[in-house]
Write a structure and sequence with these properties.
Helix content is 83%, strand content 5%. By secondary structure, it is mostly helical. The mean pLDDT is 87.
Length: 119
């Protein structure tokens, strides 16, 4: 038998443990040490996951801001495109009027010439 003093023991008495008891204590101590190590590893993994979540959240916010900015640019370009279409329609109408006017003047001049020749 081995004599071991309990932690926190105030008196001078000691408790004797047999080999079987000491083995059980050693196994429990080893198990507790392993669990403590696993707990520390788990805490580190949680810290790492939290950091990843923060980074992903930041990336998501940046993506949303970029999408919002691109949508604003698209809206501006759509408005600009509509304005250009309207300007094109106005110029096409003016061109058709000028073309019609030139045709009318050409017919009038040709008619005048023919009238003058055959008179």
């Amino acid at each position: 038998m081995y004599s071991t003093v309990l932690l926190g023991q105030i008196t001078d008495t000691s408790i004797c443990y047999g080999l079987t008891d000491l083995r059980k204590i050693a196994i429990k101590l080893t198990t507790y040490n392993e669990l403590d190590t696993l707990l520390k590893i788990s805490k580190l993994q949680l810290i790492k996951k939290d950091s990843i979540i923060v980074v992903q959240t930041f990336k998501e916010l940046n993506s949303k801001k970029t999408i919002s900015l691109l949508e604003s640019i698209i809206d501006g370009k759509t408005t600009e495109l509509e304005s250009l279409k309207h300007q094109l329609n106005v110029k096409e109408k003016k061109f058709k009027l000028i073309k019609f006017g030139l045709g009318t003047v050409s017919v009038a001049v040709l008619g005048g010439l023919l009238y003058g020749l055959f008179r």
